[in-house]
Write a structure and sequence with these properties.
binds pyridoxal-5'-phosphate, 2 domains, about 375 residues, alpha/beta, PyrdxlP-dep_Trfase_small
Length: about 375
């Protein structure tokens, strides 16, 4: 007698679908959602408290609808770190980059339009496309998880999508997309439609390479999206942002809810932006730990995809989900993103990573969890 979703008059495209659902399990070592393992430093917690207290005195009023102070500070951060001048007029902010992406799809996608991503990639791009009524096209990626440029260009030419997503460094595979590939895909997308190309740089602070922000120059259909959830260690804050031509910033105003960014969120993000130096020091630590995970996993005998992010994709397994469960039995939660043969682990603290490495060493001894032989040796 229980009423289910499908008994309700929900939209046809939502029938039989499941929501985003990374398991939130209570285990000792959680390395499954690419969070930063370091809590915010106490000085920053104090500063947030001060800023939020001040904001609380004005909570009877709506917040700054245009988030001018915050966008100015975000623009300064981007200018300082990416070697490319970005101004207030180039920046827009929302509740996580997921909301930024939703606003972009509401603006440039929607019913009768399509978006493409090169999969496996960030599953939320497809989910947000569905939620906004945008048709989703699953574009190709090579067996080594790089974007095969010729195949990707063909997919763009054939499908003429309205929005193109390029995630670099990519999630869940970890590898970055070379700037030349991004440029070629931008050109292909302009020739086909022209469409808006969204470069999702959620992990760029962890990358060996530079941000693609300088590519914005002279490319009005290019959007770079960023987040404070990963490098800044502020996933709980829900603050994402984009940089683009001012016309793009004006266009997303057409769909954003008025006062979407609460005064508390703006105050907290502004406090965090006063401490970027400290926060980026944790990033350096995590990059070292990421590189250590790559080295040690390879030494154990696993295959590992090159990583420019704060996580590592490793395999290959006949039954990745069975291995995921075995690792969980050792009190370590990693992620099964549904990429056949592979799992993903987030770089945690040195102690957490040691616990993970101990777990995979033990799991490797169990039947069914042995890594499959490298490609050149297998038939
Ligand atoms: C984690 C992640 C995001 C961040 O989403 P937020 O809503 O900002 O927390 C965006 N893009 C990718 C590829 C991610 O992995």
């Amino acid at each position: 007698m229980t009423l289910g979703i499908d008994d309700l008059p929900v939209r046809d495209e939502l029938r039989g679908q499941s929501p985003y659902g990374a398991p939130q399990l209570d285990v000792p070592v959680r390395l499954n959602t690419n969070e930063n393992p370091y809590p915010l430093p106490e000085v920053l917690v104090e500063r947030i408290t001060e800023r939020v207290r001040a904001a609380a005195r004005d909570l009877n009023r709506y917040p700054d609808r245009d988030a001018v102070e915050l966008r100015t500070k975000l623009a300064e951060y981007l200018t300082d770190t990416a070697g490319h001048r970005v101004g207030l007029e180039n920046v827009w902010a929302a509740n996580g980059s997921n909301e930024v992406i939703q606003q972009l799809l509401q603006t440039f996608g929607g019913p009768g339009r399509t978006a493409i991503g090169f999969e496996p990639s960030y599953s939320m791009h497809a989910l947000i496309a569905r939620g906004t009524g945008t048709g989703w096209i699953s574009g190709p990626r090579g067996a080594d998880f790089t974007i095969d440029l010729a195949a990707a260009e063909r997919a763009i030419a054939e499908n003429r999508p309205d929005v193109v997503f390029i995630t670099t460094p990519n999630n869940p595979t970890g590898n970055a997309v070379p700037p030349e590939t991004v440029l070629a895909l931008y050109e292909a997308a302009q020739a086909a439609k022209p469409s808006v190309v969204v470069v999702d740089e959620a992990y760029v602070e962890f990358s060996h390479g530079a941000s693609l922000l300088p590519l914005l120059e002279g490319r009005p259909h290019l959007v770079v999206s960023r987040t404070m959830s990963k490098a800044f260690g502020a996933a709980g804050l829900r603050l994402g942002y984009l940089a683009a031509h001012p016309a793009v910033v004006d266009a997303v105003q057409l769909v954003r809810l008025p006062y979407h960014l609460s005064a508390v969120t703006q105050a907290t993000a502004l406090a965090a932006l006063e401490h970027t130096g400290t926060l980026l020091k944790y990033v350096e630590r995590l990059k070292e730990e990421r590189d250590r995970l790559v080295r040690e996993l390879r030494a154990i005998g696993y295959e590992v995809t090159e990583s420019d992010a704060n996580f590592v994709q490793f395999g290959r397994f006949e039954d990745a989900h069975a291995v995921w469960r075995k690792i969980l039995e050792h009190g370590v939660l990693v992620r099964d993103n549904g990429v056949p043969g592979w799992l993903r682990v987030t770089a945690g603290t040195p102690q957490e990573n040691d616990a993970f490495l101990d777990a995979v060493r033990e799991v490797q001894c169990l039947v069914g969890a042995t890594p499959t032989p490298p490609k050149e040796q297998s038939a």
